[in-house]
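User: Please fill in residues for this 511-position structure.
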C-alpha cells in the first residue's frame, strides 16, 4: 500500500482523479516515482517473455526504465529487420535536409504471444515533428532605449494585462520547466539581454537554474521564446531547460523525454511544451500509451501544459473531396492542460482581448470526453452559438483548449536581434509562468503544488477573463469552411479565456 494512503490496487486512472480533485480525501497526496512504479510496472513474467524473445535474436543490449514499463534496446538494422519482419531505410526531411532518420518502409509484425504484452515499438514508423511553426512577423536591431516601446507584446504588457503587477516568486523550493526537442536550444546571452531590456519593472532571474540534456548548437526561436517568457511571468522561479537532443540513433526525442521523466525521481512541477502532431498521423495505440505517460506524470503532482496548435480547427481533405476537422495530439489528451491563443483587439491597446483565429481547438477523434468538462462543454454545444456542421467533428469526445493567453506580436531576442513572433507557443509559457506563481503561494502556505490542473480549472471558471470577441477559428479558407465560434464561458477557440493572477491565486489557496 503506497504511503500516500491510496490503495495499491487502485489503477492509474483512479489515482489521478483522487490526487487532483479537491473534493477527494487524497487531494494533493502525490505519489513518489517508486509508488508510481508499484502502480504501473508490468507483470514480471511479461517482462521476462519479451526479454527472452529479444534474446532469441541476440538483442541483449537492453535496459528497463525505473517504472519498468519501457524497454530500451540497441540493435543493428539487420537484426531489427529479422526481429520485426520488415525492411528499414533512410528518410530525409524535404526541407530540413540535415534531418535523416532510419524508419521501416513497411508494416512490422511480432509473434501473437508477444504482441499481447506490447503497446507499441518506438522508432519504427513514426516520423518526428520537425521545426517550429512560429510565425515571424518582424525583425529589427535592439533599440538602445526601450522605455517608451509600446508596440507589440513584451513582459510588462502581459504582467499588466493579467494583473501580475510587481508580484514575483519567493519560495526557494518552487520550480518550472520548458521541454524542447529536435535541436531547439536557447541562448543564455540572449536571455540576459532580454531580461536587461524587458525585466526592469520586476525582480527576476537572468539565468536558467538547471539544464538537462544538450544545449549547444544553433539558437532556436521556440527555445528562446519559452525561456524568456516563462521566466518573465513566473519571475524569480527556478527554471529548468529540459532538452532532449537531436535524432540520436533515429529515435524520437518526444518519447525519449517521457521515458527520462519516468527515470528521474525529482522533476519540476510544471512543464511548458510547444509540440504537436495531427491525431490522424498517429496510431491510436501510441496516443493512448503517451496519454498514460501524462497520467504517470500527473499523479506525481506535475502540471503539463501544451500549446493547442496554430491551425485553428484544422481541416483534412479526403480523396472524395469531403472534409473533416483536424484535431492535434497531445493537445487532445484529457491528461494535459491545453493552451489556446488570443490577441489584443487593437494594435496599441492592452485593454481587451479577442480570439486568435489560428488558435487550435476542437474535439478529439480518439479520446472520450472526461467527466471534468462534460457539463461545461455541453453548455457550449447547447447554447445559441452557431456550431459548424456536426459531420466535421465528434462532439462527444475530449474538447480543447482548456485556457488561453496572448499569442500574437511577441517580442523575443534571438542572436542579438529583436524578433516579433506569433503562435500558441507564446501563450503556453505565459500561462505556465502564472501557474508557477500560484504554486509559489501554495508552497509558502505549506500546501502542495496544484498538480494536474484540469479539475481545478473546470471547477473555477471565474479565475479567467472571458474572451468572447473575435472571428471563428480557421478551418479551410479555400472552401470558405470556418471552424468554431467564440461564446460566453468555455469555447473551442480560447477555452475559459485568459488567467487573472489575483483570482487564480485566490482560488488556488482555497483548498
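Assistant: Residues filled in for all 511 positions:
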Amino acid at each position: 500500500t503506497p504511503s500516500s494512503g491510496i490503495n495499491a490496487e487502485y489503477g492509474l486512472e483512479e489515482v489521478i482523479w483522487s490526487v487532483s480533485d479537491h473534493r477527494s480525501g487524497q487531494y494533493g497526496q502525490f505519489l513518489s516515482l517508486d509508488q508510481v512504479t508499484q502502480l504501473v510496472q508490468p507483470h514480471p513474467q511479461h517482462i521476462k517473455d519479451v526479454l527472452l524473445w529479444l534474446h532469441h535474436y541476440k538483442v541483449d543490449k537492453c535496459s528497463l526504465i525505473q517504472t519498468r514499463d519501457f524497454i530500451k534496446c540497441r540493435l543493428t538494422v539487420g537484426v531489427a529487420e529479422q526481429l520485426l519482419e520488415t525492411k528499414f531505410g533512410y528518410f530525409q526531411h524535404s526541407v530540413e535536409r540535415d534531418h535523416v532518420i532510419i524508419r521501416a518502409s513497411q508494416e512490422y509484425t511480432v509473434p501473437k504471444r508477444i504482441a499481447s504484452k506490447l503497446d507499441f515499438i518506438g522508432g519504427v514508423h513514426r516520423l518526428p515533428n520537425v521545426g517550429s511553426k512560429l510565425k515571424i512577423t518582424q525583425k529589427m536591431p535592439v533599440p538602445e532605449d526601450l522605455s517608451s516601446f509600446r508596440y507589440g507584446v513584451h513582459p510588462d504588457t502581459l504582467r499588466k494585462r493579467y494583473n501580475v503587477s510587481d508580484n514575483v516568486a519567493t519560495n526557494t523550493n518552487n520550480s518550472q520547466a520548458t521541454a524542447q526537442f529536435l535541436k531547439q536550444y536557447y541562448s543564455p546571452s540572449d536571455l540576459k539581454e532580454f531580461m536587461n531590456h524587458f525585466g526592469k519593472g520586476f525582480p527576476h532571474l537572468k539565468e536558467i537554474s538547471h539544464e538537462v540534456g544538450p544545449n549547444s548548437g544553433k539558437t532556436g526561436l521556440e527555445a528562446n521564446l519559452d525561456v524568456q517568457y516563462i521566466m518573465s511571468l513566473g519571475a524569480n522561479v527556478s527554471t529548468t531547460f529540459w532538452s532532449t537532443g537531436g535524432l540520436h540513433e533515429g529515435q524520437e526525442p518526444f518519447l525519449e523525454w517521457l521515458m527520462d521523466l519516468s527515470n528521474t525521481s525529482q522533476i519540476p512541477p510544471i512543464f511548458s511544451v510547444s509540440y504537436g502532431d495531427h491525431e490522424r498521423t498517429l496510431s491510436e495505440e501510441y496516443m493512448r500509451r503517451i496519454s498514460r505517460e501524462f497520467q504517470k506524470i500527473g499523479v506525481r503532482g506535475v502540471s503539463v501544459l501544451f500549446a493547442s496548435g496554430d491551425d485553428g480547427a484544422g481541416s483534412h481533405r479526403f480523396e472524395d473531396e469531403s472534409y473533416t476537422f483536424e484535431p492535434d495530439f497531445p493537445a487532445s489528451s484529457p491528461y494535459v492542460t491545453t493552451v489556446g491563443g488570443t490577441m489584443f483587439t487593437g494594435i496599441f491597446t492592452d485593454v481587451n482581448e479577442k480570439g486568435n483565429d489560428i488558435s487550435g481547438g476542437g474535439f478529439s477523434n480518439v479520446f472520450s470526453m472526461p467527466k471534468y468538462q462534460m457539463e461545461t462543454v455541453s453548455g457550449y454545444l447547447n447554447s445559441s452559438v452557431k456550431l459548424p456542421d456536426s459531420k466535421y467533428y465528434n462532439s462527444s469526445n475530449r474538447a480543447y483548449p482548456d485556457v488561453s493567453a496572448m499569442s500574437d506580436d511577441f517580442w523575443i531576442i534571438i542572436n542579438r536581434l529583436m524578433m516579433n513572433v506569433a503562435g500558441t507557443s507564446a501563450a503556453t509559457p505565459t500561462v505556465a509562468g502564472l501557474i508557477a506563481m500560484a504554486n509559489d503561494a501554495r508552497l509558502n502556505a505549506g500546501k502542495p503544488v496544484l498538480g494536474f490542473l484540469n479539475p481545478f480549472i473546470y471547477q473555477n471558471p471565474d479565475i479567467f477573463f472571458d474572451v468572447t470577441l473575435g472571428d471563428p477559428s480557421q478551418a479551410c479558407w479555400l472552401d470558405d469552411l470556418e471552424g468554431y465560434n467564440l461564446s460566453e464561458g468555455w469555447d473551442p477557440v480560447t477555452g475559459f479565456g485568459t488567467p487573472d493572477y489575483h483570482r487564480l491565486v485566490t482560488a488556488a489557496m482555497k483548498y
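For context: The chain has a mean pLDDT of 91.
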